[in-house]
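<amino_acid_chain>
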Amino acid sequence: MTERDDLPLPDYDHLPVGSLISRIRTLDRGGLQTLLDYEQGHANRVQVVSAMQNRLKGLQEGAQPSGGDPAAVGADAPPSAAGGSPVSAATTGPPVNPPSHGDPTNPGQPRGSGSHKKSG
């Protein structure tokens, strides 16, 4: 049985499930099979085992590892989190100007200064 120190993902036992599922996409068939065997022999988490089996099936059908270093800091972060679009005057939304009589969606806010009572 594979020892924790021999796993292709360092600190495997402490990775959150979401991070782990993201990082397995960088592994080849051998590395993924090693992790799957380890997972089944230890925590045997249904979600993790299922994700690994699905990914292994994809690799067997011709999918390729996504590349990159699965041990790198931020390896599980989505690509847009690394940079994203800069904010500028050209990319901001229009200014928000509430109506002068108050916000009609907020019943606790005053709606006007005049009284519109009917005299009876």
